[in-house]
Amino acid sequence: MTDTDIKYGLAGVVTDDTAVSKVMPETNSLTYRGYAVQDLATQCRFEETAYLIWNGELPSQSQLDEFKAMERAQRGISKDLIDVMRKFPKGAHPMATLRTAVSFLGLEDKEIEDHATDKLYERAISMYAKIPEIVAADYRLRNGKEPIAPMKDLGFSENFFHMCFGEVPAPETVKCFDISMTLYAEHSFNASTFTARVIASSLSGIYSAVTGAIGSLKGPLHGGANEAVMHMLKEVGTAENAKAWMLDALATKKKIMGFGHRVYRSGDSRVPTMTDAYKKMVDIIGTDEAKMYWEMSKTLDETMVSEKGIYPNLDFPAGPAYYLMGFEIPMFTPIFVMSRITGWTAHIMEQLGDNKLIRPLSNYTGPAQRDVTPINAR
Ligand SMILES: CC(=O)SCCNC(=O)CCNC(=O)[C@H](O)C(C)(C)COP(=O)(O)OP(=O)(O)OC[C@H]1O[C@@H](n2cnc3c(N)ncnc32)[C@H](O)[C@@H]1OP(=O)(O)O
Ligand SMILES: O=C([O-])CC(=O)C(=O)O
What we know:
The active site is at residues 261, 315. By secondary structure, the protein is mainly alpha-helical. It is 57% helix and 3% strand. It has helices at residues 37-43, 46-55, 61-73, 79-86, 94-108, 117-142, 156-165, 171-184, 191-201, 206-217, 225-236, 242-251, 271-285, 288-308, 315-324, 332-353; strands spanning 21-24, 29-32, 35-36. The structure holds acetyl coenzyme *A and oxaloacetate ion.
């Protein structure tokens, strides 16, 4: 093997087939099962997209009703899990607590390693129903409040707001959140999805695969960037400071969170739709602070594009949009998990539907073979 055979970070390498989604950097577009993501985000509720990602087709009204009933029947985490969560170390990051809580769901399910598609689907729906409650309960416990039980007559997004805050905001705010859920749901072989497929490929079980995927998504080069973006906006401080801050950050070779992408080189297909939702949140909230973040974001974006030709990714508008919806910054990446659980589990099912152990090769760069020196002679 020569160096030219190596694609560091697997950049540009095609490793398998998928029918779940298609990322088209040449046209800045993304489809889930053939449907443009911006059409799904604006014309469908997240529940319809979730059904599509798992089943390959958009649901009829009766299929959607049945699907919603299945999800709602799975709502409600155990008292044992809530008791375990009460004992989590104070100050642990919510992505770390979510990773542990999802692993605990696997213990409660006795880690049944059944790879039949219908069994995997049942477990996928169970996690999709329970993860929002884990995220909301963790938020409340960290703030010294008791968890709020899910309500079975509320939609997916409405129920999440209810479990966090005890109330559901105006439909326009729920719609902005729902749009973000659809945009975050799936993105082919990104790092966390690939992690899930690698773990699934050893036949380790769906909970192991999702737990590993959560660990991968947590990093700031991947899903953790939506939190890092909001920390960055807070550090910038004022809209007037945005250009100078960016120029200084670029001069000192800082990584600017929420910009750049491994696959898209001239813009992320999901950004225009999420930017519209962010603007909508700015108009709904209407405060000087909200308007200031909007102006600041525009200046950061314009400066980065004109100076470096590097475009924002989905995390750039999603972070401040979640902030304006009232969520604490450390909840942003767990909220991403509530959506991406659909894509991850669709890929796990696809992987196990025609499994081959994922095991690439490496180019060895260590010492040449040598003899062991006895310990008393070293
Ligand atoms: C939902 C998601 O996961 S979307 C991604 C979220 N992640 C982020 O927003 C984190 C910030 N962005 C990044 O770190 C990167 O753009 C990544 C990790 C997303 C993609 O990385 P790669 O494909 O490996 O690109 P790579 O790091 O090689 O960048 C190519 C060049 O652009 C520069 N670049 C890329 N992104 C950025 C950035 N955000 N800030 C500053 N420079 C950047 C690199 O420094 C590099 O420059 P060089 O050639 O002079 O060394
Ligand atoms: O595709 C990627 O590398 C990262 C990304 O945008 C996602 O997972 O949504």
